[in-house]
Amino acid sequence: MTDNPGVDTPAQQPVPVGVGYRANAGGPDSDAVETLALPVAAGPSPAARPALRSELREPDAPAQLFGLRTRDVSAWFGDHKVLERVSLTMPAGQVTALIGPSGCGKSTYLRILNRMHEMVRSACLAGAVLLDGEDVYAPGRRPADVRRRIGMVFQRPNPFPGMSIYDNVASGLKLAGIKVRKDQRDHLVESSLVSAGLWTEVRNRLRTPGGALSGGQQQRLCIARSLAVSPDVLLMDEPCSALDPTSTRRVEETIAELRGRLTIVIVTHNMQQAQRVSQSCAFFLATHDTPGRIVEAGDTAQLFGNPVDPRTADYVNGRFG
Amino acid sequence: MTSATDRIAITPEEHASMTTTTETAPAAPAPPAAPDPDEQRRIRLGGVDAGTVRTNLGAAAGSLALTWVLYERVLPFSGAFGFLIFWYLLFLALSWAISRLQWDVRTVRERLVQSLVAGSGLLVVALILDQIGYVAFRGAHAASHSNFFTQDMRHTATLSPITSGGALHAVVGSLEQLGLATLFAVPLGIAAAVFMSEIGGRLARPVRTVVEAMTALPSIVAGLFILGVWILTLGNQKSGFAASLALTVMMMPIVTRAAEVVIRLVPGTLREASYALGGSQWRTVLSVVLPTARPGLVTAVVLGMARGVGETSPVLLTSGFTSQMNADPFAEHQVSLPLYIWNYVRYPSTDMVARAFAAALTLMVIVLVLFVTARLVGGRRPGELSRRQRRLVARDLAESFTHPSDGTS
């Protein structure tokens, strides 16, 4: 693990959040709070909630939604700077899509959000990532605790090959060291699989290996696995790029179902997908010698329908990238 | 080389029978459905064609005859080994010549290389079979008497008949020493492998270098090391335990290296998935990396055990020799199978030598049992089901068909 150079460098002053972005800094969205029969839902109250949770939420408790905000995030691999002062707000309970051509730093940015960036040797960063107003890079904060609250789904489905479907979903509990009773765990596995839209397909073969599922099912299994530890935010790194159109549709339906129950950030190369699943959107761009930065961010409909920046207009209309 | 010709000799018949079955298949009464008039005749892909078979057969027969004439009648040599080599070389030359009459140089070169590679493979198999067969042949006399597996050598003198004495004490000693050494070497080896592949850092490199150097450590040095440290310096007795320490020195680097290789093969995406779920590093190693690498780790352990069980020189210096049963590895001398073999094969009496060969056979059987057990216990690839799991799955599926799921939940 490499060490991060201080979290807040004095040289970087906070700048106004985003560019052309509405000032929704993480409050619960009005249309998002209704679907809160969370199987895996929130804790006692936001104020009483400890920064480092060790308890799972009670099922059927009202959900507490948390937004994610970054302030002046820059990132380096060795001496190579890949992100330049990215400030973005990902509103609570909404789906935020990150779009942009390959190599513009979207995935790096996504991995910074749940501290997966530091898994790469020689990686370092500056700036702050605020979950519910608290910096996830604050000194003394354990990466494992951050990652439990901010789950991640990867580009290629990666279920644990040695585990059954059931064990795959329950693996997060074991890995994060959460102790639950057997019936609770059964309930959690079922509700996570239901949320990921996989329950009806696998309910009769929970004990078969997860690797025997089709690619799309595996990806939904990975989503269920992430949901089982009841994260506040779910990051998805091109979750459909290895899937066929039917599986893609199923995953998109799952995302639509999850919307309003937790905050989702999705990286995608598919412009139509970004339009279909997201409510807000950020367009990243990097040129040959400049690191990636946000060109434009805002409401998805606005960004696609009436972009402010001509480069955004070119990109969303498929004229480059 | 006989087996090569045998193999080839079978193929034309196979070939012929296969062709006939394909041709007669539509006429056969077996398919109850109406015969499909549009049934296409399938083209056989790959395999050997008749030309190759004829060429190889011809070359084999011709070279056999020529070898017999030259080697047995004309040249001043004899002996089976030289005969086979001479035959093989002549076979290569003849098959080159015959092939060259039919095909261009590129094809012929291809076929010649095929013959060479197949010959090498067969040679290896033949050597191993010969080795096992020779030991079994020499040892059968002693191993066929049940007292060999139920007695020790306490009352057996040099000229005692084969119906007295046995290797039970050596089998017990071998298993105890191997068990202890495995107990020490496997946790150490796997922990070292985890350190090198998962934690790494600056120290991983020297550790890897040392481990690699240790795999090439002469086994007598391992014995000397334990003799010097454990027995001479610390003043302990020669015992089975001391021998197991020496075996640990031999086994650990092998387990470490093999384990590191298989741990490195675990996809990084699985580690990422585990970390993204909030797993700590040691949780990830324990719950994801090691279970995924389990079949490979079992192989690593078996490799180490197979190495350890046959080592003679570390045991020679550290365990001491006794002709009596000693089940306690911590006190008194304890003999093991390699040492037993080493000791009795030097006797002038044929019965003693037969006992040594029977012990060698026993040793090979133990190694075989180890391999088979390891395959059965941990050899499944991750995600592959055991027979019992497969049965459960089949039952679940059958139930889901008989009671169709009530749909949405």
How is the topology of this model organized?
The complex is a heterodimer of chains A (321) and B (409).
Chain A: E1 68-77, E2 80-90, E3 95-99, H1 106-113, E4 123-131, E5 134-135, H2 143-149, E6 150-153, H3 165-175, H4 182-195, H5 199-202, H6 215-227, E7 233-237, H7 245-258, E8 263-267, H8 271-277, E9 280-285, E10 293-299, H9 300-305, H10 310-316
Parallel strand pairs in A: 3-8, 3-9, 6-7, 7-8
Antiparallel strand pairs in A: 1-2, 1-4, 4-5, 9-10
Chain B: H1 2-24, H2 50-74, H3 80-102, H4 105-143, H5 168-199, H6 204-215, H7 219-233, H8 240-264, H9 268-276, H10 281-292, H11 294-309, H12 313-318, H13 337-344, H14 350-378, H15 387-402
Helix pairs in contact in B: 1-2, 2-3, 3-4, 4-14, 5-6, 5-8, 5-11, 5-13, 6-8, 7-8, 8-11, 9-10, 11-14, 13-14
Your description of this structure?
The complex is a heterodimer of chains A (321) and B (409). With 321 residues, chain A is of the alpha/beta class. Chain A has helices spanning 106-113, 143-149, 165-175, 182-195, 199-202, 215-227, 245-258, 271-277, 300-305, 310-316; strands at 68-77, 80-90, 95-99, 123-131, 134-135, 150-153, 233-237, 263-267, 280-285, 293-299. Chain A has a single domain (30-44, 65-316), classed as Rossmann fold (3-Layer(aba) Sandwich), CATH 3.40.50. In chain A, helix 3 (165-175) packs parallel to helix 6 (215-227) and helix 6 packs parallel to helix 7 (245-258). Chain B folds into two domains: 1-13 and 48-144; 168-392, MetI-like fold (Orthogonal Bundle), CATH 1.10.3720.10. Chain B is built from 15 helices and no strands. In chain B, helix 13 runs antiparallel to helix 14 (350-378). The longest helix of chain B has 39 residues, at 105-143. The interface between A and B is large, with 40 and 34 residues.
